């Protein structure tokens, strides 16, 4: 996820009355939605990973299509819960995307102890130092808002994160064993009295690198994969450029 140049985003912590700069737990970029059996498209950056995106019956159709016009990618339903995370996603690309989306929506970004539990569960055994780096980011964020470095979410405040769209890229060619998942998301807070956050975090982007390991998708930060990261065009739901670049809206299974 994050590195020394990770993007920053303004985040209102409802109930604390403090506007802070929160480090995003991201650090890679791009994902042209990988759907098996469809034609690959060239990447937008160098080096260009193998990208597999929505099928394109005609150039004119592609030029007119936008993420909000296209059929949404339905996420897989998790089969279980463990260590604060949904589990049980398949080996395929939709399983990788589902893993990333569920993790990001469930991630305890302001609770260092719970975040460590989640990160240790989903972190690859090859991701040296990854868990400690991310826990350090959580603690830095806590200190920026006047909280002790270690502890839980302030009493009475709840957060909800919603991933709007994804862009998935294979970093290992057609094998798809290591993928980069970009996510566009919103984050909302609810105050102790039940009132909503006046300044929610909206239209933010972050990415994760996932590898298939020990029967599940695990987050990794291995240098040989990070150097293959690519960066997407900005996501706009009504943009044909965003669609052509691989952004696809998602929804949870009913």
What key attributes describe this structure?
two-stranded antiparallel sheet; 6-stranded mixed β-sheet; disordered N terminus; 254 residues
Question: In words, what does this structure look like?
Answer:
This protein is α+β, with helices and mostly antiparallel strands and 254 residues long. It has six helices and twelve strands. Helices cover 22% and strands 28% of the residues. A six-stranded mixed beta sheet has the order 5-12-8-9-10-11, covered by helices on one side. Helix 3 runs antiparallel to helix 4 (130-144). The chain is globular and about 55 Å long. The model is unreliable at 2-56 (pLDDT under 50).
Q: Could you outline the blueprint of secondary structure elements for this entry?
A:
Blueprint: E1 8-13, E2 18-23, E3 40-41, E4 51-52, H1 59-64, E5 73-74, E6 80-82, E7 85-87, H2 93-106, H3 112-122, H4 130-144, E8 158-170, E9 178-190, E10 201-213, E11 216-219, H5 223-226, H6 240-244, E12 248-251
Parallel strand pairs: 5-12
Antiparallel strand pairs: 1-2, 3-4, 6-7, 8-9, 8-12, 9-10, 10-11
Helix pairs in contact: 3-4
């Amino acid at each position: 996820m994050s590195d020394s140049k990770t993007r920053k985003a303004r985040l209102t912590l409802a109930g604390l009355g403090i506007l802070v700069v929160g480090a995003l737990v991201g650090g890679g970029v791009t994902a042209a939605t990988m759907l098996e059996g469809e034609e690959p498209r060239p990447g937008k950056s160098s080096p260009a990973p193998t990208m597999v995106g929505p099928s394109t019956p005609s150039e004119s159709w592609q030029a007119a299509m936008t993420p909000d016009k296209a059929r949404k990618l339905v996420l897989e339903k998790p089969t279980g819960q463990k260590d604060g995370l949904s589990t049980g996603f398949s080996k395929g690309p939709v399983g990788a995307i589902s893993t990333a989306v569920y993790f990001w929506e469930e991630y305890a970004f302001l609770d260092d102890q719970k975040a460590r539990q989640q990160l240790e569960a989903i972190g690859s055994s090859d991701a040296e130092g990854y868990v400690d780096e991310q826990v350090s980011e959580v603690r830095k964020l806590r200190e920026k808002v006047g909280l002790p470095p270690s502890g839980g979410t302030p009493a009475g405040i709840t957060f909800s994160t919603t991933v709007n769209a994804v862009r998935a890229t294979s970093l290992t060619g057609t094998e798809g064993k290591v993928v980069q998942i970009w996510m566009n998301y919103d984050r909302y807070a609810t105050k102790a009295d039940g009132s909503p956050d006046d300044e929610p975090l909206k239209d933010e982007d972050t990415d994760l690198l996932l590898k298939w390991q020990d029967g599940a998708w695990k987050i990794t930060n291995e240098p040989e994969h990070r150097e293959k990261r690519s960066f997407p065009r900005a996501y706009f739901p009504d943009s044909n450029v965003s669609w052509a670049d691989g952004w696809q809206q998602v929804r949870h299974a009913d």
